[in-house]
Amino acid sequence: MTNLWLDLRFSLRAIRRSPLFASVAILSLALGIGANSAIFTLMDQIMLRQLPIKNPDQLVMLFQRGAHNGNNMGGRMHSYPIYQDIQQKAAPFSEVLCRRLLSVSISVDNQTERVGAEMVSGNYFTMLGVQPAVGRLFNSNDDDRVFQGHPVAVLSYDYWKTRFSRDPNVVGKKILVNNYPMTIVGVSAPGFAGLDPAVAPQIRVPILMKPAMLPQWFWLEPADRRTRWVQVFARMKPGYTVESARPQLQTLFHQIREYEATLPEAKNWSAYARDQFLRGTIHIDKAATGYSQLRNSFSTALIVLMCMVGLVLLIACANVANLLIARAFARQKEIAVRLSIGASRGQLVRQLLVESMVLSFAGGVAGVLLAVAMTRGLLALVPSDGNPLLIRAEPDLRILLFTLALTFLTGFIFGLLPALRASRPDLWVTLKDAMGSIAGTGGSLYLRKGLVAAQVALSFLLLFGAGLFVRSLQNLKAVDTGFRDLDNLVTFQLSPALSGYDEARTVHFYDQLLENVRAIPGVKSAGLASVALLAGDEWDSSTAVEGHQAKDGEDMQAFMNSISPGYFATMGIAIKEGRDFDRRDMKNNSKVAIVNEEFARHFFGDKSAVGRRLGRGGGPGTKLDTEIIGVSANTLYEGPREGVRRQVFIPNWGNQGVAFYVRAGIGSASAYGALRNEVKKLDASMPIYGLKTLGAQLDETLLTERLIALLSAGFGMLATLLAAIGLYGVMSFTVARRTKEMGVRMALGARPASVIWLVMKEVLLLLVLGLAVGVPAAIGLGRFVATQLYGIKAGDPWIAGASMLMLIVVATVAGLIPAQRASRIDPILALRYE
Q1: Between vectors from CA 690 to CA 540 and to CA 120, what angle results, nearest 5°?
Q2: Quick one: 738 exposed, middle or buried, by C-beta within 10 A (0-12, 13-18, 19+)?
Q3: 359 and 12 in contact (C-beta within 8 Å)?
Q4: CA atoms of 206 and 490, how far apart (whole Å)
Q5: Looking at the whole model, is its pTM more than 0.90?
Q6: Three-state DSSP class for 281?
């Protein structure tokens, strides 16, 4: 321990005597370690960390695949009766729960806000093993019995802390949830946020309170087997595995579907539809880490970025190893003297490794600070939509342990080879002051050149990947949305049903608000739609079309939206044929529709669609009772990746949640305040949310692509800079070693250009060696990121060429500086150089 302490003190003194060397080494490592820690912070919290519940390894999630012949209200959903069937009859499970995430309006002491909520079955907390912090939690006996008979709520601990200042008297307090009176009965324990590792609901209510929580879904009966709207989780019995439980669960699921095929709702199914329905399957996923939409969106991107930052760290390690080799060359006489007076090679290796560890841990500390800043910046880009993100930028013990392990491994990797090489000098030659013949002609120079070639190869990988992702993002942003001037098109959303509005009152509210908004100075037009555009949301429906006989298995889906008059003008969408909606069409159960060009072309070809009829539903008895009155130009619906859909527009009549669109000639910042004021004038308690431009909405939809493009471009430039520093260092080292040789060449008449070429040949050789490895590796690895690309192939030759050109330019600049220095050597001074 004493020797280690002495080595540490010696290393600190040695580093202090070389501040430039230490600064470059520490900064290189800080960038590499910080980038890795930042991406791992996100990956750990979104993908790897188990839920803080009882026996998380027993938790599984159930989902269906195949035709369901009904309504599907979200990802991995089941009908409530299916949940009950599984709960009562599935032998592999000890308990089964259901839940649904949503947003609600909460009024407390006459203050209304929109928050994230979760409807849960009565056994939700008991199955997960969650305890109350205050009051009580739900249980099956008290909160899972009577439809609409449990107006009680449980607060999350964080919401209780921020909104109610940890007041224990909150238990028994009356609040309004969607204008429905409820009583707070308890607060869940700290540390528990739910089954989503990224997003935390702030309030939970029993699933049987669905009418109060989802008043806009007045058409949905919980007993309806054909509408899937709840997610189902289960706890495996001891002795069961996912593999052993699957056959029994599939048998039960098939029995359920056979029963459902005998119900009245199935009487109009075709033989093909019935057969496809009975082929449906149910699947089991391990859910120890929960289920998250954010994870689904970001998991592939995080894996790609983790690989990229790993390459950056390797380049940083190679850079520091090069610096240590050069430093060892400068200290070779010191090392030789220490060996000659009795120091062992092991002692020297240990001392040099301690020095590299000191540099590594200094880089690790700086890297942690950099990781916090980078993670905060990334999280600032992620929209939360009323649900606070659980991801924290500040490192916890897991992240610190990861960074510590990474730091130790990094220090060992970049320090070991230089230490072994430096501790083996030729004592006789070194002590005779024959500088340059030692490290210059032996393996040290070859090692340094090999490290630089590796840096070039890794830099090409990163630059090529960055080029693909940047070009993919450009292609996505260049897709014609069909909407005009997105940055002057402001959107916001309202849900009057969550404030207690019925259908008639909602219609009146929308009419008034549209009239008032259109009267705002600078506003050119305004309209509304029930489905927000370019947000990844969609409403599709099987559609029967006059004159078109659907074949078995044919896709008859149409993507629906209900809109107001003025919508097309506001969005800048041309009516290609027929007419737009007007006031006479705005009535309950209106039987007119407008289709887009894609729909008209698909079903009617070159013939006119106006005057043809549609029907909602795919059965043989579907009534064709809706007339097409117009054809609109094609536009995007969910986003650029999904492309143009076959769309059907119907008049909006009292939809309980809509997105308003406002064409504003005034600046968007000024429009925001004016729009808030108009909503406040009509109803000061109604929350307004999603206020942004449509351009900003498109950026949010492309968030994953933007993050990958932004970070990969940054990592690619950083890797290139580190490689350039490494190349410059090696060539400067080479020029210094060959000073006497170049002096002789100059004395014998060599021109400066030939000396420059002598140096640049070595630069070119290192570049070619690096690219010979990097180019095939990049093309081979391209298929792993192909799913993240849009409008470009993973082996795009133009991106490869541009990446090579950039590396050639950077390498040329890095090599020319020492080459020009060599061409200006004074032969007299060079011949006297030692």
Answers
A1: 65
A2: buried
A3: no
A4: 36
A5: no
A6: strand
